[in-house]
Amino acid sequence: SETVGDPVKTRQWLIDGLPSDSLSIDNGTIISRSRQWPLAIDPQGQANKWIKNMEADNKLNVIKLTEATYMRTLENCIQFGNPVLLENVGEELDPSLEGLLLKSTFKVAGVASIKLGENVIEYSPDFRFYITTKLPNPHYTPVVATKVTLLNFMITREGLEDQLLGIVVAKERP
Questions:
Q1: Which of 10, 32, 84, 158 holds its CA 20 to 30 A away from the CA of 96?
Q2: What is the pTM of this model?
Q3: Which residues face 139 on adjacent strands?
Q4: CA-CA distance, 100 to 114, in Å (whole number)?
Q5: How far apart are CA 84 and CA 90, in angstroms?
Q6: 2 pLDDT more than 60
Q7: C-beta neighbour count of 3 within 10 angstroms
Q8: How many Å apart are CA 129 and CA 77, to the nearest integer?
Q9: Confidence of residue 161 (pLDDT cuts 50, 70, 90)
Q10: CA distance linking residue 25 with residue 59, whole number of Å
Q11: Strand ranges, E, within 87-137
Q12: Residue 62 in contact with residue 69, Cβ under 8 Å?
């Protein structure tokens, strides 16, 4: 990750709560460089916490597919370029997200637009989309897996040791 990663950005991610093990840092680098939206397998909620801290100053909106208003929130964020965290997804994603997952943008009267469900909306280039699942071992169909960047944020032994060391140091310091 030192080859493609930015050490200043990596340090900020660690401050924002990204675990300091190499797998997590690699995942952060992939998220920042991938063309597809990330779908993080995140049973311990580490990716969720990190994304919320990292995007806090950018008016992050957190939505769930079970909320009645999630589509409206998503439309507004796409138009105004606010980041969205779609959390706690299952093994199926809403079919109306298809165009967004594929980043199928097109021009309408010279303005970048995207189809979300039945609606065509303006697409801000500043928009960012993160998806997380709490399922420890989800089975996504190959169709879903080709539309997103699947990342495993399951805690590793190295990551757990780092976290425990951090807790001990925090308690010992006084």
A1: 32
A2: 0.87
A3: none
A4: 7
A5: 17
A6: no
A7: 5
A8: 9
A9: confident
A10: 24
A11: 105-108, 111-116, 119-122, 129-133
A12: no
Give me 119's structure tokens: 């609606």
Q: What are phi and psi of 120, to 5 degrees?
A: -105, 125
**Residue whose token pair is 């100053």:** 57
Max Cα separation, the chain? 62
Burial classification of residue 81, based on how many CB atoms lie within 10 Å of its CB (0-12 exposed, 13-18 middle, 19 or more buried): middle
- Assess whether pLDDT exceeds 70 at residue 3: no
Task: Please tell me whether residue 61 adopts helix, strand or coil conformation.
Answer: strand
pLDDT for the residue numbered 1: 46
Q: Rounded mean pLDDT of the chain? A: 91
CA 126, CA 55: separation in Å to the nearest integer?
12
Check: CB of residue 41 under 8 Å from CB of residue 138: yes
Please check whether residue 22 is in contact with residue 29, taking contact to mean a CB–CB distance below 8 angstroms: no
Q: What is the pLDDT of residues 34-48, one digit of tens each?
A: 999 999 999 999 999
Q: Are strands 111-116 and 105-108 parallel, antiparallel or unpaired?
A: antiparallel
Burial class (CB in 10 A: 0-12, 13-18, 19+), 135: middle
User: Is the per-residue pLDDT at 157 higher than 70?
Assistant: yes
Distance CA 19, CA 152 (A): 13
Sequence letter at residue 89: V
